[in-house]
């Protein structure tokens, strides 16, 4: 356990979840005392059997177990002593350049997860919102209770600034901006409004990445998969806070923002209680089998979501999307309580970059070595791990999708001006480079 750095002051934020009707419902507090990071849920939220769902990671097999989790004193889901948030909240924060930019906006360290979350509190993924409360209010009883329960003598509340006006926290490493569409352009300076679109930029190593992902969306749509809505735009169509050298940018409409309303969502890494550093999981059959079981047992539309999940697996293997980790699959809570598989996002043909980057993508190459050999026996094992004793109909569905990809993808790649390396890679995969295509 990390040493606790007691500062004598406690910082805290109020947590809210938006209900489907647009009501902002208070659910608890987030607090930081030295290196102790605490989640304290309101008694009304804990005791409500019809409570809005924050995460499956906070849900037990029955309501009594859920109440025990939400009211726990020492569970890692509600308290840490490392200076990092419990995994659900840590996964809300960005990585890479996006994290650096947010820290610069806030004037804090990239390691100060309390301040990073506070900075972006009005524009997080899903329907969660966090914000500071007036300092003269004093420390809320619920917050004081949980910290004194740990034997700490909380002295006084620490000052917490309001969120950065255009601050946002969009998980991931690729450079992204939260934006709104004003009818003409995608605008990043939103004056405090939550973004409705994500603008994704290529990088200097792979300036064609927006074209790659845009074509990836088209390939998945050709298999009738449920995709987020994406558009390829020019840099002139985006009002960015900095100059960029790339001609094309990808604009993805957020499925957790519908008609100005926030819809709750979470990544599978959050639902499974994994930290961002654990996003690649343990082992493919184990992790994907667990995801399938969640959809089969808890989804609002289990049959549809199971077929969709398997269809995405087929598509990702055939296109070489070796970065479909547990932060790139999500659950959507359209009624605020019950999960369903969220639309597909981040369909990048990563293996298309292997030849031109021989010393890069070590982890992705290792993943590709596994999925390239992933055949129908392995697919059957996966389906069985998902709780299906008779997987034959699902296997037929997957085989049909492979044939549909062979029939439609060559023209789709041409129609959507896919980068040449992507065309070459996917053509090889469709003609036998991967076992599923044989």
Top keywords for this entry?
438 residues, alpha+beta, six-stranded mixed beta sheet, disordered N terminus
Strand content: 15-25%
Radius of gyration: 22 Å
The end-to-end distance, rounded to whole angstroms, is 50 Å
Helix content: 25-40%
Write up what this structure looks like.
- The chain is built from 14 helices and 17 strands.
- The protein has helices spanning 43-46, 63-70, 87-90, 96-106, 113-119, 141-148, 209-222, 268-271, 284-298, 302-319, 362-371, 376-385, 392-415, 420-433, and strands at 9-18, 24-33, 36-41, 79-80, 128-131, 156-157, 176-181, 186-187, 197-200, 230-234, 238-239, 248-253, 257-258, 261-262, 264-267, 330-333, 340-341.
- The strands form four sheets. Strands 1, 2, 3, 4, 5 and 6 form a six-stranded mixed beta sheet that branches.
- Helix 9 packs antiparallel against helix 10, helix 9 crosses helix 12 and helix 10 (302-319) packs across helix 13.
- The longest helix has 24 residues, at 392-415.
- The radius of gyration is 22 Å and the shape is globular.
